[in-house]
Amino acid sequence: MSVLDNWDQWKNFLGDRLNQGEQQGLSDGAVNNLAFEIGDYLAKQVEPQNDQEKVLADLWSVASEQEKHAMASVMVKLVENNGTK
To answer: Domain of life of the organism in this record (predicted)?
Structure first.
């Protein structure tokens, strides 16, 4: 089963990656830029696997570049307290 199949697993996966990045010294700006790149990749290359991902994909498809960066930043905030730490 892929981490994309379940929303909670996806948030935990992202939380783990965020924690790893912070432990390696990535700045908040670098983390947010990476989240934007991941969001852009997922929107272009990966079919949404659950309802939450479908909503995000729909929002991403109509968002401006600035709005996409804001969405990525909000996703970082959402997962900051998720993951195994």
So the answer is: Bacteria
